Amino acid sequence: MFVVVILVLSIVLAFPAPLYRWVTDTPAVVAWAVAATLVPVAVAALAARQALRRLERFPEDPNRGQSVLTHGMRAVHGTLAIGQSGLLLCTNWLLLVARTPVVGDWPVIPALLAISPFLVSALLVWVVSYPADRAVRQIALEAFLFRGRPVQPVWSLRQYVINNVRHQILFILIPMLLIVAARDVIVIYEEPLRRFSGHPYTADLLLGAAAALVALIAPEILRYVWSTRRLPEGPLRDRLTQVCRKLRIRYREILVWRAGSGVVNAAVMGVVAPLRYILLTDGMLEQLDDAKIEAVFGHEAGHVKRHHIFFFLLFAVITGCLVTLFSIHSRHMNSREQQMVGTLLAVVLLFKWSVVFAWISRRFERQADMFGARVLALCGLPCVQPCELHRPEHSNPGPDPLGDALCSTAANVFSNTLNEVAVLNGMPPEGRSWRHGSISSRSRTLLRLAADPAAVASAERTVARIKIAITVVAVVCTAWAGWELKLWELLRHWG
Ligand SMILES: [Zn+2]
Ligand SMILES: [Zn+2]
């Protein structure tokens, strides 16, 4: 869902006015808004009913019901994305909300009104899909009981919706709305700001600075958008702190993240150490034993040590530069040219975020998986099977857990952890995730890499090339945007 949130908000941010005015009279626009809101809800209701039927008919194979729900939700996200982006780009909806009396002149409010059909639709989708989600979680819960682990009851409808709003919507919406707010305020004061600075593109530069600031402080906001608390003192905290010391990872805090009943997950956020948080869900702390928690923690540590967040931010900088270039040049275009270039930009960005981002993301995840296995070996997981890292000829000066070879025991523990996490979350192991790939392909890949250090080296080289490519494109785009924004005049003026 959060991909759709990013899409909808990016459109609102990048296109202040609709590209195409195919639907202009108010009743038709409103009809579109209503349809774009209700169709995904109908699809979700259908998918939930089908999934429940499957679960009832094949109780011995819950994967069948789960995969119906997974596919159904994908269709829901598709209809949501198409309906909402159509509403924003091809109808007069954006102009209609901007002209709404009283509220239209305030910052942020028009953007909020513009995305309100999306927000309503998402809420209703969760309400109607709750029974199926509940049934799937119930099955996962039985797996918990079977393992003799403590369980939290499956969440109520209210908890489910609130949890989804916090984790799928607010987590994107709040930082993006801050940027929208900055843009709206800058637009209101554009003239005085320009006179003050003596620079023609003051507004664009300020907006860039605001976006960078939001990206930097986002972790501090998100730790409160999500419900988190400090990981209490104890053996686990000591062990994780030790891991970070060994890896020389600095952070602000390790947090327990109350992500809702039985959600087994971890995350890391923040580019700079003073604003970096490592999060582990309470479900994970309850359900996994310490070695597996260390495995997941090692994966997150891999994201930090390999600077993945930094490169994702550079990736976003590229988008920012392209949008800025479009906004500078579209001021001198007629509406046909605007449409052509705008469509081209939209297609490029859609491809960049749906295909390229997912591809890069999967490579980064794989690198973090390898790192997780390395961390397990570094923490002294006893090696119990034939292994490329712990071969006898390596015993002097001793194997390097952070080198190319992976310990096969560590890879095994890591891949078991992945499978266990999938089961606990009620996800089918073969179910593909857009950003992560399927759990079973991840664990297969890791086991294959553990048997073949040359393949590890080649996977690492691929990621290194990706990082170089992102850096080069980001530098070129920044230089180009800087040139067009006449940044040098600003430097001369103030320097
Ligand atoms: Zn990851
Ligand atoms: Zn080993």
User: How many domains would you count in the coordinates?
Assistant: 2
Cα-atom Rg, whole angstroms? 25 Å
Mean pLDDT: 89
Hetero ligands? zinc ion
Shape: globular
Work out the number of β strands.
Answer: 4
Task: Describe this entry's structure for a reader.
The protein has 17 helices and four strands. The radius of gyration is 25 Å and the shape is globular. The mean pLDDT is 89. It has two domains: 1-225, no CATH class; 302-495, no CATH class. The longest helix is centred in the C-terminal third of the chain and has 44 residues, at 335-378. With 495 residues, it is mainly alpha-helical. A hairpin with a 7-residue loop joins strand 3 (266-269) and strand 4 (277-281). One zinc ion binds at residues 383, 387, 389-390, 407-409.
